[in-house]
Amino acid sequence: MDTQAATADRRVLTNNDARIDAALLNLAADGVPLTHDAVAAVSGISRRTVYRRFADQPALRARLWDLLSPPGGMPRDLSALLERELRETFEKFDTNRAAMAVATASAEGRQMRMERKDERVAAYSRAFAGHTGSLPDKARRQANGVLQLLCSGLAWREMRDQWDLDGTETAEASVWALRILLAHLARGDAPGVD
C-alpha cells in the first residue's frame, strides 16, 4: 500500500471513530441502550464497521466510559487525586453533562459502572491505603466506600442538580470533605472503631 492510500485509510478510521464516539455520547444522553444497531443508525456507519471496532456491548460501554472519564481513568495515588485528578474528572463530567447525567441514573449506566467495579475498588483501595489499610475489613470497606463516593459521578450529579455546583466547585467541596475524613482516619477515628 502506498503512503497516500495509508493516509487515506487512517483518515477514514479516524472519521469513523469520531462518528462512533459522537453516537455513543448522543445515545447515552438520550438514555437509549447502547446496541450496535443504534450506534450504526446514529453514526451513519455500517453495523459491520461498528462490530469490527467493538465486538460486544461491554466493549461499547467501555468506550463510553473512556469518553466520559478523564485521561488516565482511575486514580493513581491520593496526592494526585486531591491535587488535580478529581477536578479534572468533574470538569470532564461537565463537558459531557447530558450523557453523564443519564449514565449516573440509568440501567445502562449502572451496568457500565459495574463492569469497572473491580478496577475501581482496587484503584481507590490503593489510593486510600495509607489511611485505611490497617483498619479491620468492615471498617476499611466502609471508609473506602465513603471516600470513593465523594469522587464519583453520583456525587458530581447530586451537587450539580441539588446545589447548582459546577465540576470545579464540586471538586473543591469533595476535596474539602475528603481531607476532613482522611484527617479523622489518621487520628484513628473510623467507622465501627471505638
Could you describe the 3D structure shown?
This protein is mainly α and 194 residues long. It folds into 2 domains: 3-65, Arc Repressor Mutant, subunit A (Orthogonal Bundle); 72-186, no CATH class. 76% of the residues lie in helices and 0% in strands. The chain contains 11 helices and no strands. The chain has helices spanning 3-30, 36-43, 47-53, 57-68, 78-95, 97-103, 107-114, 117-132, 137-149, 153-163, 167-186. Helix 4 crosses helix 7. The longest helix is centred in the first third of the chain and has 28 residues, at 3-30. The model is unreliable at 6-12 (pLDDT under 50).
Key phrases:
Arc Repressor Mutant, subunit A; 11 helices; mainly alpha; about 75% helix; about 190 residues; about 0% strand; 2 domains
Task: Give the secondary structure arrangement, pairings included.
Blueprint: H1 3-30, H2 36-43, H3 47-53, H4 57-68, H5 78-95, H6 97-103, H7 107-114, H8 117-132, H9 137-149, H10 153-163, H11 167-186
Helix pairs in contact: 1-2, 1-4, 1-6, 2-3, 4-7, 5-11, 8-9, 10-11
